[in-house]
Design brief:
The chain has 542 residues and is an all-alpha fold. The chain is built from 24 helices and no strands.
């Protein structure tokens, strides 16, 4: 039954995606990379959420909650605030320029050198950081959810390699042959499945923990008695995310991810107009604020169950006899979900993996084709050649990511925190340069290139070599990120006082979409920010 429901749901999504997108052209640049600039608010919201809500969240955040409790909700709740900033500040500027990529925006502001540098950074980072993490976390979830090592009679490592290869092949097919339209449509279907399936896991987790005689309220009381800090939103000293980090690295990583990260915001570039784009972004913000119900609560319950249930706890142990947080979510699903529903949820998980994987491949193709192939390799390329180069890029990036996934993340403790620190290597310097470029009209592209390279060098030193020094000086890697961000901003402003543009930058209107804003957007955005603040205050003490 498990395998049957898995195949049925996966096949249904593929069929519906083909049916809806059949006959739609993907042989033009706008058609392949931006879905013909035709996306509505609902599709944008679904695609934003599913591009983000993958096993990197399901496995990573629930594993983090298993170790540290509710404080890890910051990665989701503060994302809601960042999306408000995207809707009200960044998106109008992006759509006005008519861009397809963030490096394209940076070229308009700084020049071709900045575009070439940032294009390379994005592609390499997606290939060596983001995609390997998505593949590894997805393979881990499926392996323990479906007990694949036993089913396939393979070792745990062999199973991970096999599942990684399967996901990479299927995900590549969506991105290579369907373009952004197929990615966005499949995201919407999988988003509905993830919402239903994720809520089911939360419900069945509480039900399992409650036993025959308990209730959800008694489970919460028992969890608090077992772990008094489980429901404290601000965390405590020594945890990866505690309240001071909310104002430094955690905030900056969220801002970059949701406001300037090509992989995420490319679907907003495909909006049919600004109003639809803002509706989609703000709807996604609302659901991100609610996301801890799916992405954090099950992990908190899992710790309580593991402390009470020796059989479940055994599922979480690695070869060294220690609890492995990458096993938490898959083992929980396998334990609490009725077998008839396990196949459905496994298909949902595969869909969420594919949505992120194929979205990143499409973004990589967009970056390469428009920023490298058309600009440097073949300046006279036809539209067909540009699209073909994007498909080849997607295939190569997928191969390298699949090889790197187990090598980079297998056997590492606290994989979600490690993933965020790897992201910080390029998030922090790029965010600093983008913001300076928006608020300062005179700094030149030379200042931007130098500042990015210096920021990358410092972040790489801090991430891979300077752990002890950073701990002694800053107390947290996230505080170090905040310091580097401030340092890069100051450096660029100092350099920019000498390296100036001949004329102040003035953004031109490309007139590709209607820029009339959605009138309720400021009010809706304000309400969402107030909701975040109230949520944090209400749960400050658990």
């Amino acid at each position: 039954m498990t395998i049957v429901t898995f195949i049925l749901f996966t096949g249904l999504v593929a069929f519906l995606t083909w049916w809806i997108t059949r006959g739609k052209t993907t042989n033009t640049e706008d058609g392949f990379f931006l879905a013909g600039r035709s996306l509505t608010g609902l599709v944008i919201a679904g695609s934003l959420l599913l591009t983000n809500l993958s096993t990197e969240q399901l496995v990573g955040l629930n594993g983090g909650a298993f170790k540290e409790g509710l404080s890890v909700m910051a990665w989701e709740v503060i994302a809601g605030m960042s999306l408000v900033v995207l809707a009200l500040f960044f998106l109008p500027r992006y759509l006005k320029s008519g861009i397809a990529t963030i490096p394209q925006f940076l070229e308009e502001r700084y020049g071709s050198g900045t575009r070439a540098l940032t294009t390379g950074i994005f592609i390499v980072a997606y290939m060596l950081i983001l995609l390997p993490f998505v593949l590894f976390s997805g393979a881990s979830a499926l392996a323990y959810m479906l007990d694949l090592p036993t089913q396939l009679d393979m070792s745990a490592k062999g199973t991970i390699w096999t599942v990684v290869a399967f996901i990479a092949i299927v995900g590549s097919a969506y991105a290579i042959f369907g373009g952004l339209r197929a990615v966005a449509v499949s995201d919407t279907f999988n988003g509905l499945g993830l919402l239903i399936g994720g809520l089911m896991i939360t419900y069945f987790s509480f039900k399992y923990a409650a036993g025959a005689d308990g209730t959800f309220s008694t489970v919460i009381a028992d969890i608090k008695a077992d772990n008094p800090d489980a429901f404290a939103s601000l965390g405590r000293e020594g945890e990866d995310v505690h309240w001071p980090t909310l104002f430094t690295g955690v905030l900056l990583l969220n801002f970059f991810y949701w406001c300037t990260n090509q992989q995420i915001i490319q679907r907003t570039f495909g909006a049919k107009n600004l109003a639809e784009g803002q509706k989609g972004v703000l709807l996604a913000a609302f659901f991100k604020i609610l996301a801890p119900i799916i992405l954090v609560l099950p992990g908190i319950v899992a710790l309580y169950v593991a402390n009470q249930d020796a059989e479940f706890n055994q599922l979480l142990l690695n070869d060294a006899g220690e609890r492995d947080d990458s096993k938490v979510y898959g083992s929980l699903v396998r334990t609490v979900l009725p077998p008839a529903l396990t196949g459905f949820f496994a298909a949902v998980v595969v869909g969420s993996i594919l949505s992120t994987f194929n979205s990143v491949l499409n973004s990589s193709a967009t970056l390469f084709s428009l920023g490298v192939y058309k600009k440097a390799i073949n300046k006279d390329a036809t539209t067909e050649q540009v699209v073909k180069s994007g498909r080849w890029c997607s295939a190569l990036v997928a191969v390298f990511a699949a090889i790197g996934a187990p090598l980079i993340f297998m056997g590492r403790d606290g994989i979600f925190g490690y993933f965020q620190k790897l992201n910080g290597v390029y998030f922090i310097p790029l965010l600093a340069v983008i913001l300076v470029g928006m608020f300062n009209k005179r700094v030149s592209g030379q200042s931007a290139v130098v500042s990015i390279l210096v920021g990358l060098a410092v972040m790489m030193w801090g991430t891979f070599l300077g752990g002890d020094t950073i701990g002694a000086v800053f107390g947290s890697g996230y505080h170090f990120m905040g310091a580097v961000f401030l340092g890069v901003v100051i450096l660029q402003l100092v350099l920019g006082s000498k390296m100036k543009r001949e004329e102040p930058y003035v953004q031109q209107d490309a007139k590709v979409v209607d820029l009339t804003p959605w009138k309720p957007a400021p009010m809706v955005g304000g309400a969402l920010i107030v909701t975040v603040l109230v949520l944090y205050i209400a749960l400050a003490k658990g």
